[in-house]
Automatic annotation (TrEMBL):
One of its GO terms (molecular function) is DNA-binding transcription factor activity. It comes from Vagococcus fessus. Pfam families: Trp_repressor. This is TrpR-related protein YerC/YecD. Signal peptide: none annotated. InterPro entries: Trp_repress, Trp_repressor/repl_initiator, TrpR-like_sf, YecD_YerC. Coiled coil: none annotated. Gene3D superfamilies: TrpR-like (1.10.1270.10).
Length: 110
């Protein structure tokens, strides 16, 4: 893991702080304070590229939609294939959450 190169206590404290955020509004506030707009755009671009790769999109489709360079797409693809499977984990959780929301909405209609 590349992240192991960071000072353990610092990263541990940071992750605990992120995990303590209680809702989306707190996430907006924290990440707005933490990152510049440019940093956040890069962060989001990589996340979106990963989702599109997991959807089976081609480099050309991803490049057209996100304006990511092929170098970024390649880096993200390598993470998806050789990394910790975190992009897939988050994708699976988001799909599950969406399904639960739909099921709850349908349950209220009956």
């Amino acid at each position: 893991m590349r992240i192991d190169q960071l000072k353990e206590q610092d990263i541990e404290t940071f992750f605990k702080a992120v995990m303590s955020l209680e809702n989306v509004d707190e996430c907006y506030d924290f990440f707005d304070d933490l990152m510049t707009l440019k940093e956040m755009k890069i962060f989001l671009m990589r996340f979106n590229v990963a989702q599109m790769l997991l959807d089976g999109k081609t480099y050309q489709e991803i490049e057209e939609e996100t304006h990511a360079s092929t170098a970024i797409i390649s880096r993200v693809k390598r993470s998806c294939e050789e990394g910790n499977q975190s992009y897939q984990l988050l994708r699976d959780r988001l799909v599950k959450q969406d399904r639960l929301i739909i099921e709850e909405a349908q349950g209220f209609k009956h």
